[in-house]
Specification:
single chain; 324 residues; alpha/beta; Rossmann fold; 42% helix; globular
Length: 324
Amino acid sequence: MADFHAADGSYARAGISERVFLKINGGYGMLEGMVRKQMEKQAQTLDSWLEKHDREVPFPEGVRLHGDQDYMGDGKPCHRMDVYEPELNPKEGPVLVNFHGGGFLLGKKQVNRLFCADMCLHGFTVFCPEYPLVPEIGIFDIFRDLTVAVNRAGEEAAARGQDGVCLCGDSAGAYLCVYLAAMRENPAMAEAAGVSPVVPRIRALGLISGMFYTCRLDSIGMFLPDMLYGKGWRKRPFRPYTDPEYTARAGNLPPSFLVTARGDFLRHYSRRFYRAISRDSAAHCLLDIQGDRPLSHAFSAMLPETPEGRDANGQMAAFLLRHC
């Protein structure tokens, strides 16, 4: 299966610096146009893969899906949310909110359909919101929209007598988990983002192939920051928080379960982030699969039916349940 990520970095691998690349291609406006075209192609590839995958892997029994709920009340497709409930005792389990990946530039909630169903079979009620994508909007708008989605999930948890929710996500979705959780515990960070913190307590995080680092000198940081944080972001109050390690320390991150594997092109991100957060707390866990065969990026979210996906999701579910 192909890895669906925007940070191709072919020009970086060719030894072309960002300054030279942008001069050749007419600046950031040209770069944004190139990214849009590339995303259109990758979106088509993703849709084709998703259609084939859904034909080959049936939706599991024992799960009730309530699709396309309008969590913002504005009728926009980017503000729809799927809710997965176990058919047995549907209103008793803990609440989990899942954010899909895609580098903030593509992706859709349907990609995580089988993953959400799998977590539902582990006992969770799963809320999976869609969210608008870059470059149409920036990260702060995404934060605001998903705050509404998490608050709605929190209302369901409160109605069940539960103290908070868990968050999980893959790739860019893992970044969103970290930042929404951190802003709840750090009012200064939320103010710098212009965002109201989520209301429910965040009990624990599940972080699959996390795209935690957005501003490093690599194939992601060379093109994404201006689109994500806005031009001039280096001079704005949110700049310190673009470092996820600083964000995690400042936001008192809840217990987190990280998943990666040999073959994951962002494996080094998960390893580095785990080392950083483990300095402050022993509550975190890293599942780093060495394996005989390489696994794809976000394998446990996109391919939960595989042996490796089932095992990783089972371990993550057990971790989250211990902290719910």
